[in-house]
Amino acid sequence: MWNPARRIETAVVHAGSEPKVKGALVLPIFQSSTYLYSGQSDYEDLKYIRLSNTPNHEALGAKLAALEGGESALVMASGMAAISTTLLSILSAGDHLLIQDCTYGGTRDLVSNDFPALGIQVDFIDPLDPNSWRDKLRPETKAIFVESISNPLMQIGDLASAVEFAKKNGLVSLIDNTFATPVNFRPLEHGFDLVLHSCTKYLNGHSDIVAGAVVGGEEMVKNARSRLLRFGGSMDPHTCFLILM
User: Fold this and answer.
1) Which of 101, 108, 201, 222 is catalytic?
2) Crossing angle for the helix pair 237-244 and 55-68, nearest 10 degrees?
3) Angle between the 79-90 and 218-231 helix axes, to the nearest 10 degrees?
4) Mean pLDDT value of segment 96-117
5) Residue 156: pLDDT above 60?
6) Using an 8 Å Cβ cutoff, are 107 and 176 in contact?
7) Mean pLDDT score, 106-126
8) Which listed residue (47, 104, 142, 227) is catalytic?
């Protein structure tokens, strides 16, 4: 794991780039979709693009984990792939989600239009009024979802209260950190459980890819990965390479 004592500027350049491939200073693009079997006993340990565990996936995941200060990271085909896959690795029929009312349109459509059909109930909360959240809390509430800076209205909610509320009520706390990026805010250091990104935007920076990621504790990210294997929103190696650059 990357040494968190090192400066973030160093992590941006070097994290995820070890070990070098035959002396190459830049990790090449591993175009292969399949890899030779090397004795793995678990299906998820096989090397395969859809399993998001090729050298390019692992290098990018390691860099993002280092930048956010997380144990693990999983990269996906889009920001919405990351949001939907991660939420559905936590929520199932009968569960209830609290989510800020000023949020990205794709996220709002997902929880408003698709979650009720899956038996997942949703209530929107005012991120600036934490005193109102308890009124919407239910015994089946499982998670709370906020954005560090909302897309596109740039609203900043009471993030510290979101963490405190989640811990007090046994909820999983998720935050979309796309607009802030780990350069400006690292939610895991402030107690959030999972951090989501649309890498399409500032993490990439040059408007030539669509991608997403989730960063957090190893077990939670592993659960998201198991869900991703079935949903299929895998990032391709070229995209991994472009974000790394």
Assistant:
1) 201
2) 40
3) 110
4) 97
5) yes
6) yes
7) 98
8) 104
The three-point CA angle 108-111-112 to 5° equals 75
Per the listing, tokens 């740039």 go with: 154
State the Cα–Cα distance between residues 106 and 103, nearest whole angstrom.
Answer: 9
Which of 35, 48, 50, 108 does the annotation list as catalytic? Answer: 50
> With 60 as the cut, is the pLDDT of residue 144 above it?
yes
In sequence order, the 6+-apart residues with CB closer than 8 A to the CB of 134 are none
Round to whole Å and give the CA distance between 221 and 206.
27
Spatial separation of the C-alpha atoms in residues 97 and 195, rounded to whole Å:
16
Q: In the Cβ-directed half-sphere of 195, how many Cα atoms lie within 13 Å?
A: 33
158 is catalytic: no
Q: What is the pTM assigned to this prediction?
A: 0.93
Q: Over range 3-17, report the average pLDDT.
A: 72
Structure tokens at 49: 């693009």
> Is it the case that residue 18 has pLDDT exceeding 70?
no
Is 186 an active-site residue? no
Report how far residue 15's alpha carbon sits from residue 4's, in angstroms, rounded to the nearest whole number.
11
Write the CB contacts of 10 (distance below 8 Å, at least 6 apart in sequence).
none
CA distance 177 to 181: 6
- Catalytic residue check, 201: yes
Which pLDDT score is estimated for 2? 57
